[in-house]
Design a protein that fits this description.
The complex is a heterodimer. Chain A is mainly beta. Chain A has strands spanning 4-7, 10-14, 19-25, 29-37, 43-48, 52-56, 59-64, 69-74, 83-91, 99-100, 104-109. Helix content of chain A is 0%, strand content 59%. In chain A, 39% of the residues are buried. Chain B has strands at residues 5-7, 10-13, 19-24, 31-37, 43-50, 65-69, 75-79, 88-95, 106-107, 111-115. The chains are: A mainly beta, B mainly beta.
């Protein structure tokens, strides 16, 4: 099945700093989503972005489908941004389930 | 409803007992997924339902696990003869369309299961 790799696995930032999280995938996809899992376990959908670029406030994401990677940018980070960020994809083949990466644990210090 | 609703939010059960977890997807969503997440781990796919098609059960870890979806809406995940390794958060998700579709998948808040 499709492989999803995220980097870095852990990231510690000072409040106000910017960061870039990366997601590499091994096959073509027709669905790619970024999620934020808060400390209570809730998965919040950030972006549906199988290709192109989107922005939502301090967050933006870019997927280059032909090169099989996606980037999540967090600008002016806040302590509430802490948590685990997951990239998840559905391959363009017969698979129907969303395959998750192992996540990036982000800690933003005050 | 406005979002994916799961119940119970927390369940503590004794080893060997059966448990049922319920998921009510977003109204009109035809695709429904179950995942589980053990403490500090990633998300593990369990089962997928799409309309009236046969479910994709390829992720169910053993025959103690089963799921059904009645009327194309509410789904129940049943774990028989629970074991301690079944302790995890069980997450349900739904989307408007399934295979090959380009739609956002939304998750519920999960059911935290502890087997003692």
């Amino acid at each position: 099945g499709i492989q999803v790799e995220q980097s870095p696995p852990d990231l510690i930032l000072q409040e106000g700093a910017n960061s870039t999280l990366r997601c590499n995938f091994s096959d073509s996809v027709n669905n790619l989503q970024w999620f934020h899992q808060n400390p209570w376990g809730q998965l919040i959908n950030l972006f549906y972005i199988p290709s192109g670029t989107k922005q939502n406030g301090r967050l933006s994401a870019t997927t280059v489908a032909t090169e099989r990677y996606s980037l999540l940018y967090i600008s002016s980070s806040q302590t509430t941004d802490s948590g685990v960020y997951f990239c998840a994809v559905i391959s363009s083949g017969s698979a129907r389930q969303l395959t998750f990466g192992s996540g990036t644990q982000l800690t933003v210090l005050p | 409803g406005a979002g994916v609703s799961q119940s119970p939010s927390n369940k503590v059960t004794e080893k060997g007992k059966d448990v049922e977890l319920r998921c009510d997807p977003i109204s009109g969503h035809t695709a429904l997924y179950w995942y589980r997440q053990s403490l500090g781990q990633g998300l593990e796919f369990l089962i997928y339902f799409q309309g009236n098609s046969a479910p994709d059960k390829s992720g169910l870890p053993s025959d103690r696990f089963s799921a059904e979806r009645t009327g194309g809406s509410v789904s129940t995940l049943t774990i028989q003869r629970t074991q301690q390794e079944d302790s995890a958060v069980y997450l349900c998700a739904s989307s408007l369309l399934g295979q090959g579709a380009r739609n956002t998948i939304y998750f519920g808040e999960g059911s935290w299961l502890t087997v003692v």
